[in-house]
Design brief:
globular; GIY-YIG endonuclease; three-stranded antiparallel sheet; 5 helices; alpha+beta
Length: about 110
Amino acid sequence: MKYYYTYILLCSDNSYYTGMTNNLKRRLDEHNQGEVRSCYTYKRRPLILKWHIKCTNPLEAIRIEKQIKGWSRKKKEALIKENWQGLIRFSKNYTQFGKPPSTSFG
């Protein structure tokens, strides 16, 4: 059976990168070797695998990747830490938990 993986990497600048592949080890090696100069991760090496999920359907892995890419940093960290209550909490209000509050000048 063929597997597909959705993964989250921690970059050296402390940002997260989310991707999808059919070979997790090979793809992590490619990211860390800097195979593609135009890739988001190229200037952010070394990279550390923080989370992944294995799927049997490539469309499911792509769906999960796109879903996670839309999440706030706090929600991604809740997933990585398997903090299910935090995952629910940070799903409720992206502007409250995902972005720094804006300052109003009156």
